[in-house]
Structures are given as structure tokens and as C-alpha cells.
Amino acid sequence: METSNKAVISGRLIEFYEFTSRPLEYGSTRIKNKPIGGTYWEYGREYGAFREDGNLIAREIRHREIEPETKEEYIERSIRRASTQMKRLISANHQRHFETETTYFTTKFLTLTLADRSLLFLEKTNPLFTDFIRRLNRYIYGNDLEHRKLIYIAVPEHQEDGVVHYHTLLFNMPFVAQKTLQDIWESGLEDVIATPTNPKGIKGIVDIRVKRSWKICFYLTKYLTKNFHDSTLAGRRKYFPSLKLLRPQNIYNQNSVIGLQASIPPEYLTRTREFYSTYCGNVKYSSFLVPDNFTLNEKSI
Known about the structure:
This protein is of the alpha+beta class. The protein has 5 helices and 15 strands. It folds into 2 domains: about 1-25 and about 250-300, no CATH class; about 95-240, Alpha-Beta Plaits (2-Layer Sandwich), CATH 3.30.70. The strands form 4 sheets. A 5-stranded antiparallel sheet has the order 13-2-3-15-14. The protein starts with a strand and ends in a 12-residue tail after the last strand.
């Protein structure tokens, strides 16, 4: 199928795309004549046709060897995609999970460091983070496996000395005392220890903050994605989203998109720009930040 307009709804963030050069192709019709498992070229990129969860999808083929003249462009495009997806996931989940029938959980921002300063590789540290989430789930929910559902996004980052630490946003975590979190994070330091480079000391849980303002989503996205240029993360997952995250909603129906955009007051406009996409050609982009009490036009979506 084809469309000249697309909208993406991520909580209070609503983005619009208008494709002015050629329509955007989406859905299974784009690859309906392509053999499953086969590859094909479009606009200078190689794609593969796959069946996933019963749906036909097209996925760009990412080669291990990239021509030197295109490698930097490829890396930047990958980082932009990951940053955009991170922003939308944070926007879709920040204060969107109910703690009671009428109140939302506040978002917690947690930083985890390691006691073992020799752990420099994600192959060694990622299992430690996974164990922390498992133990934290067990502490909060006990043996209630059905409702064990911490919702989070985690970003690994290498410090200047190469040691890995983890920044984590938790969207539905109730209050847990910092000392308890330190005990659960078994790989962290038990006590604060001063060092020549950090006279105030380091500890297993460096920081835990409560984030209520929705505008913090933009700051956190920039903060959490600043390490995406880290060469040690090349070809690796740059962030870890939990399975039960709320996902952005994509709208492709042209009339619905136009109607939705017309229903949003212009004072909520936050950004406009025009850019060129290899696949879509010229694109007009605009984004809106609507208030919590704003009701979307149901006919539009």
C-alpha cells in the first residue's frame, strides 16, 4: 500500500510526515511479489523479504563489510534510527502506567555501576544486569509470575576507564529504598569508597531519581543516546527495552492523518523541518506536544 502522509503517536508526542516526492510504501504489498528469504534492491539499498508473526515485512540487509565511503553515513543513519525509536519509547511510556486507578507511576532513573573494575565487555556485564532485573522483579512481585512485569529501558555505557555501567528508566516501579536496591544489585560496591578521581566516592547505585515532568523525555533521550557513537557498541544492541513497553502507534491512512493534524491546535507545535530521504525523497516533518487532557479525534485514528 502507499500513502503520502504518516503519523506517529507516542504518548503526548505526535509526529507527522508528508512525503512530497513519492508516496511511502508500507505493509505486505511492498514485498508481495518477492520470495520469502530473497533479497532485492530499492533506491540503492538491499532488502530482504521475511515472514514475522504471520506478516510479510521488508528489512534492510546490513552487511558486515561496508564500503568506506558509505560506512560513516550508514553508522549515522543507524544512530538516528535508534535515537528516534528511543525517544518514542520513552514518550509512549513516561507516566503512562497506572499505579492506582487514578494515578500514574512516576518514572525512575537508575544508574548501576560495577564493583569489579575489570569487567569491560558487554558479554560479561549484560548477564549481571539481567540478573538484577530478575531479582528486583522477585523482590517487588514475589512469586507472582503472572504479574511480574517491570517495564524499563536500559542503556549500557562505557566510562572513561572502559568500565561498563547501566542507565535505566523504570516506568512502573513502586518505591524501593536505595539501600535495598544496592543489596539487590549484587555486582555493585557495598559501601561508598573514595578514589583519587572521585573523592566523593562511588557505590553500586550511583543515582536514583524520580522524573515527573514530561519534558524530561527529550533530555533523557539526548542523555541516554550520547554514547551511541561508542565504537565498542558497533553492531550491538544500543539499548535494551523490556517486552511490555507501550509501543508508538503508526497511522498510515492519509485522510486520518490529515484529519488528526488539523484537529491539533497550532500552539502545540514544537518543531518543523524538511529533509531528503533516500527511500522516500523529500519529506516535510512536524511534531506536536499535546497536554495530558488533550483528547485525540477518534475518527482520525
